[in-house]
Amino acid sequence: xxxxxxxRRGYINAQITDVTRNVDGRRTSYQFTIREGQxxxxxxxxITGLATADTRELTNKWTLARNAIFDDxxxxxxxxxxxxxxxxxRTPRTGIRSRFEVNTKPDTQKQTVDVIITFK
Length: 120
What we know:
alpha+beta; 3 helices; 32% helix
């Protein structure tokens, strides 16, 4: 959970180490070290495997702006609220049940994350 919280704030490589747990009666305390690493920002969005109109439709629904702090959890929300419904609507129109893959490509020099959505 801690790693996910940091990833929502652009720290996609945060490391949690030296975890110790102390149980005292009804209380538990944890101590740990967090190394945030670099904070990443949104890079480019690439959508491949679709017609131009469909690509434009999905691109317009992507709201994580370029250079905004990268929110790793946004990908899951986009997959659930946009991509899955898009496939459901597109299937009867095209007769093809599309599959898609969502990948990220971090660039440590630019401190950005490109998102690649590939339809097959």
